[in-house]
């Protein structure tokens, strides 16, 4: 579950079958007066919109039962709950959930319409905050993908170390020291410090220096792992490799930042 704040109203968002559902129960707190989701659902315009949405997105939608429900809209005694509506029509756009994350949830398309019923201003802020959330999620997804790529390339890097730098007679502890030492060649070339120096400077943080790298640094690190493997296979000394990798890191980070800057200007 994720939460966003819309004009001092905290609104929950759930993922259901890889789709975003926004909590109407949270949203209605922003509406002046005492209202319920059922007050909105009994409106004929609301039902017409939901009916069209379901027909477009839900092949199991019971159009016949929906027509019966819609025919009663507008009558003073007409009222229907989200749970009853969903059960009678097989609707997927509205869901009533019990338990820890209980409340009435709607697919984002329908939730945006509900926000308009609260107020046009509320809808504008909801859409803006929702889009901001999606952009942040995409950035995080990109970071995670780059981190995983770096981990995969690490195997290429460690294999080159194993084949070229580790004598068979070394103990496990001695072997670990060589791997850590070579990892620090990349750390120093890119970040300017070793893993231990970073840990000593950031005792309150969990993980390691690479867990806090940005996307540009992860791209560069992934490239450097491959290049260092090549340099090791070519029997280049560690000092030479460090100097060369540092030069490459500076050049690549500058290029990536320039590309990022041009995107921002557009």
Question: Please, could you describe this protein's structure?
Answer:
- The chain is an alpha+beta fold.
- The chain has 2 domains: 2-118, no CATH class; 137-265, no CATH class.
- It is built from 11 helices and 5 strands; from the N terminus they run βββαααααββαααααα.
- It has helices spanning 24-27, 37-41, 44-57, 63-71, 82-89, 108-118, 120-164, 172-191, 195-201, 215-233, 238-265; strands at residues 2-6, 9-16, 19-23, 94-97, 103-107.
- It has a 5-stranded antiparallel β-sheet with strand order 1-2-3-5-4.
- A hairpin with a 2-residue loop joins strand 1 (2-6) and strand 2.
- Helix 3 (44-57) packs antiparallel against helix 6 (108-118), helix 6 packs antiparallel against helix 7 and helix 8 packs across helix 11 (238-265).
- The longest helix is centred in the middle third of the chain and has 45 residues, at 120-164.
- The radius of gyration is 28 Å and the shape is elongated.
- The mean pLDDT is 85.
- The tally of helices reads 11
Q: How far apart are the termini?
A: 34 Å
Q: Order of SSEs, N→C?
A: EEEHHHHHEEHHHHHH
Overall geometric form: elongated
Largest sheet: 5 strands, antiparallel
Output the strand order for the largest sheet: 1-2-3-5-4
Number of strands: 5
Strand % is: 5-15%
The averaged pLDDT comes out at 85
Which spans have pLDDT < 50 for at least 5 consecutive residues?
Answer: none
Write down the oligomeric state.
Answer: single chain
Count structural domains: 2
Helical fraction equals: 55-70%
Report Rg: 28 Å
- Category from helices, strands and their pairing: alpha+beta
